[in-house]
Amino acid sequence: MKTIGMIGGMSWESTAEYYRLANEQVRERLGGLASAQVLLASLDFAEVERLQARGDWAGAGDLLARAATSLEAGGADFIVLCTNTMHRVADAIETAIDIPLLHLADVTAEAVLRTGVRRVGLLATAYTMEQAFYRDRLEGHGLTVLTPDADDRATVHRVIYEELCLGLVRDESRSAYREVIERLVARGVEGVILGCTEIELLVNEADSPVPVFPTTRLHVEAAVTRALA
């Protein structure tokens, strides 16, 4: 079994899901007492959030690149970045290491395409919805990506940072997300990408009239497949 190097802590709520799902996946595939071989570098999200808010992506890239090199030095065979938003600095990470980075947007796009869906809505942090780095990567695979309108983007972002990252899961926020999804469906989307790892703590397939693509679970499944290859 290969060793998965996880860069997490952004937030630790979703990183805990990564760790749980990876171990469950390995146990399901191998049986018995099998569990995942994981090295985890868990960062202080408060520091990362300050860099995000300042737009200091170079500083954030340096921080995550150091985490990646420490995982490589510790024996990781490949890297999984346990956050969608911080794929904004994926190039800085890849430049710093000699082992592969399993890019979350590539994994997600491949999963969407396998279902035949081509036109997707994207729910994520404002950084991920409004900047080009993630949408361009998805569209490079042939997808058409729609994001919510400005008011809905603000709602989705606020719930992530003010609730889900703090472990707060509220019914009223679930209802708000359902309404955002319904408005995207009215614009013609065939599926919805849950493009922030915390969103899966709030909504799932039952909350959408079209298929949803949970990026955390998809990322973990791809990582475990690579680890067991």
Automatic annotation (TrEMBL):
<dbReference type="GO" id="GO:0047661">
    <property type="term" value="F:amino-acid racemase activity"/>
</dbReference>
<protein>
    <submittedName>
        <fullName>Aspartate racemase</fullName>
    </submittedName>
</protein>
<dbReference type="InterPro" id="IPR004380">
    <property type="entry name" value="Asp_race"/>
</dbReference>
<dbReference type="InterPro" id="IPR001920">
    <property type="entry name" value="Asp/Glu_race"/>
</dbReference>
<dbReference type="InterPro" id="IPR015942">
    <property type="entry name" value="Asp/Glu/hydantoin_racemase"/>
</dbReference>
<comment type="similarity">
    <text>Belongs to the aspartate/glutamate racemases family.</text>
</comment>
<dbReference type="Pfam" id="PF01177">
    <property type="entry name" value="Asp_Glu_race"/>
</dbReference>
<keyword id="KW-0413">Isomerase</keyword>
